[in-house]
Amino acid sequence: MKSNNESENTEFLKRNIRKIIQDKRDSLLVLYRKKASKIAAEKFFNSVHYINSSNILIYYPFRSEIDTTVVIKKALKDSKNIILPRISDQQLELYYVNDPEKQLKKGAYDIMEPDTILCRKARISDIDLAVVPGVGFDRKLNRLGYGGGFYDKLLRLIPKEIKKIALCFEIQVVERIPTYENDIKVDLLITDTGIYHP
User: Which structural domain range is residue 77 located in?
Assistant: First the structure.
């Protein structure tokens, strides 16, 4: 357990790193983001984890995040099931989505989320591959979230044997992410220029 001072220091560092990375990511040209998103997605499609998966938990891109719609479209084309989250009561609810254009609407924080009337609910036990968001990562596969704690709660509920993969731009990878003991790492980190293994 960290002392109060250590926790405050960790939070301060996390906020600073979060701001630096988000500013860098926001400054990337749209054309570069599109191209880099496709490159990272191709690496993901070639992974054994994607090839062997059936039910993929993924997120809809927000602001300057890597474009996960590339993955969503291809996965649906490959007859895989897509599970997207929706924020409800400070936690994430999961839903199957098979037609993003018709089944999504703006939700919390203006993020596109499943329409509960049009989508079928999914369970954590349905997931066999998870693609998780993050502001930043380090080479040891530590993850820095957005500060809301939504994915921290969800990742703790996903069984260890289910692979957790992150897709991001290389500029989001830093030397060290400050962590707490119970923070969950990703199992694989894929960027536009590299792949980081455990």
Answer: 4-196
Q: Which residues, at least 6 apart from 91, have a Cβ–Cβ distance to it below 8 Å?
A: 150, 153, 154
The predicted-structure confidence for 8-20, as pLDDT tens digits, reads as follows 898 999 999 999 9
> Could you give the CA distance from residue 135 to residue 169 in angstroms, rounded to a whole number?
10
Q: Based on the number of CB atoms within 10 Å of its own CB, is 135 exposed (0-12), middle (13-18) or buried (19 or more)?
A: buried
Cα 76 to Cα 188: distance, rounded to the nearest angstrom: 22
**What gap in Å lies between CA 113 and CA 105, rounded to an integer?**
5
- CATH number for the domain spanning 160: value is 3.40.50.10420
The alpha-helical segments, DSSP class H, found in the chain are 4-26, 30-45, 48-51, 69-77, 100-103, 150-157
Contacts of 146 (CB under 8 A, 6+ apart): 18, 133, 135
Give the pLDDT confidence of 40-78 residue by residue, as tens digits.
999 999 999 999 999 999 999 999 999 999 999 999 999
